[in-house]
Amino acid sequence: MIFITGPLYSGKRTFANALPGTRIAEVQNLAKDADDLEKLADKLAAYDIVIATEVGGGVVPVDAGERAAREAAGRLACLLASRAQCVVQMFCGIPTILKGELPPC
């Protein structure tokens, strides 16, 4: 699995939906509703590519529920990164490889 994280899009689906074996995950929504983050990470790790939006930056929410969802999303991202062969952080369209290496095109 290749795990890509960062501010990838602004609420719209990207070209990655067309790639077979890809899952774009709204990690904050998946994580907050998950009973078991380990099982969810295992399920998502079955995809070839998992793309998750970054939710950890910026102002910390005042609402306790939103803070808990943000914490769960961060924990899910860490679990996914540990399962991935390659982890890429995108920022302003520039990829930074944090773990492993990208396969050849």
UniProtKB/TrEMBL annotation:
One of its GO terms (molecular function) is adenosylcobinamide kinase activity. SUPFAM superfamilies: P-loop containing nucleoside triphosphate hydrolases. Keywords: Kinase, Transferase. GO terms for biological process: cobalamin biosynthetic process. This is Cobinamide kinase.
